[in-house]
Write the structure tokens for this entry.
Amino acid sequence: MKVKIITDSCCDMPYEDEQAHKDMIDIMSFDITLGDETFRERIDVTPQEFFEKIDNSPHLPKTAQITVPRFEEKFTECFNEGYDAIICVLINSTGSQTYSNALQAKKNLEEELDGFKNMRLEIIDTHCYSVGYGYPVLEAAKKLEAGQSVDSVVDYLVDMFNCCEIYIIGFELRHMKKSGRINAAAAFLGEMMGLKPIISLIDGESVVVKKSRGDKNAIRDAAQYVAQQATPETPWQILRADEKELTDEFIKIYSDLVGSKPVMDSYCGAAVATNTGPHMIGIVIRGKARR
């Protein structure tokens, strides 16, 4: 079968992994607006360039959802190229209209384009963000390239998203509070005392699970807490922003605790940084199944 995986740029997959599987993976970019400038994520600006821009700008970045017409164009392109199946893996539906737009595009094309129903189109809600689906998408591509069936790969993805847990160590909460996307940050009152929150982000719901005094204590406490939540001997991923030394130290501490290094080490892109800011660390683990 001729199969392709479509995802969006919030997946934060490392560029080298995207290029290594470019015939299998198609990443659709979000548009990001900062003041009078608009960027296409992964195309017009690197993560490091975006970190600098938002740190120096008085404006709050805004992310535009991927629209129905854009999905219609992409799905039609795949249909015309003779694909037998498309697996479309998208950002958490509670945080973006993108997933609903993809469903609407599929419905429109099934009604308007002759033969479109003959192409299998699976649209999957990841219930998560960033490398929480960037890593599973990469693994799904490898499985398809190795000859596994679409059914088995869809089952793998659904299982991964049913167990995905994301944790954020927040060193500076200005962007989180302004964006309103991470509600726990807005409710956090400990910054004046030098407290740093550890925030869980599971199925789109954010909760402050721990508070630590100072950056060093925060990474140690986070490593211990997250290790307790993780299913033993399962892969984990790290999401970097603009805190290199603290991130490197966290990786060392957590790797010693769980006995393995991260299977994906990536920088957060503009879509994630728009809501978290550049002063954080993200950790993704496999927890208990929720569905």
In short: The radius of gyration is 19 Å. Residues 165 and 202 are 5 Å apart (CA to CA). The first helix runs from residue 15 to 20. The chain is about 40% helix and 25% strand.
